[in-house]
């Protein structure tokens, strides 16, 4: 097949661990983090990160959820490799440009920490490790001590694509099945899903993200899984889609277990929160997590697990230590690294776990994709061009900005801002923390 077709949809039938593809994973990813990684090379690291993070949170407590959220949004896309921090270059929009990341704040905090660390231990500390430490310290400030151990030794990645962020970040409108599949795909189990959702004990969500629950069919009817009084309260708050509402109604400034108590009273703000009650197992875990020490223990464990998603620990696997968290030091010639020839053209990359399928869409040469996947996975890979879908997708791809369907639970109010999120192309868009 020649690369003459401009937009092709390739379905690959693979019997593989889909994740290793999703994250461009090679052999060295996932393991190799250490509790003593910087003990010799930069013993001051924890103190410096903590000092700056705590100062920021002390000044303004709304920084805590923001800094925590940064680490999530980094790890869920391409693993914890600080890809979120890279600025766009040469017309390639980076992850931070994705609408799901438009409310991410705190880049300047990371910059400040990185500058400080470059003074003390130049060229030693990765931005990915900084993000993991900052997330821990942002939560820990309230307690005056580190609440979990952060393993380090991550290298920074060199690839950052807005399109990947749009696809891989869990949606605030997702149901339990979708959320669970996404988490399983990243090596996280149902306990991790519930524990990490508990991050919503702090922070806010904008009305645009949940407003659909207040007007499910467009007839002013509220989501029946939402407490009616709480729904009325939310209606009075949401005078426009940009208004921010506390995710944990009673105590959004305090990291505690009220989030779970609220959930059980049907006061979970997002559909993805309420979804945790729709599965017997997760509902049980929600109940257990109402006890703060239980929640905190598991939250720490799950953060550690999340912090190891797709990590790069070796230079051979494309990792490096950035000097400035916003830019890569060296691009890798002849590879698919940013702004590489393949990634550059891939517009969409979705995995269908059940069918062992990966769908790659974009201006790509199917044979090249095949070769690459074969090489990366070491598994049998076939092309299954879906003839029915091809024309439909070909037209849709060219006009991502005009979805004609507004799926349930997404809000259509401020079209210009959230259109991409509403796109049929992108049902799993948005974010787990807003
Ligand atoms: C950070 O370090 C400075 C200087 O050593 C100190 O004055 C300040 O209190 C520290 N801040 C925190 C939050 O630990
Ligand atoms: C904290 O930061 C938020 C958003 O950046 C801002 O709206 C708020 O006014 C700040 N609060 C204080 C006390 O400075
Ligand atoms: C969950 O959402 C997905 C994607 O929108 C949908 O395909 C699936 O049918 C939903 N599952 C349930 C049980 O509602
Ligand atoms: C619900 O949505 C419909 C259609 O978008 C709109 O006309 C109506 O005013 C909304 N109702 C409420 C109560 O927001
Ligand atoms: C929130 O606070 C109110 C009043 O203090 C209390 O009645 C309610 O049970 C609390 N809800 C949760 C979820 O803690
Ligand atoms: C998308 O569709 C709209 C109207 O349906 C049209 O005005 C616009 O030019 C299209 N954009 C692209 C990139 O095709």
UniProtKB/TrEMBL annotation:
Removal of H(2)O(2), oxidation of toxic reductants, biosynthesis and degradation of lignin, suberization, auxin catabolism, response to environmental stresses such as wounding, pathogen attack and oxidative stress. These functions might be dependent on each isozyme/isoform in each plant tissue. Disulfide bonds join 42-121, 75-80, 127-325, 207-238. It catalyses: 2 a phenolic donor + H2O2 = 2 a phenolic radical donor + 2 H2O. This is peroxidase. SUPFAM superfamilies: Heme-dependent peroxidases. Its cofactor is heme b; Ca(2+). CDD domains: secretory_peroxidase. Pfam families: peroxidase.
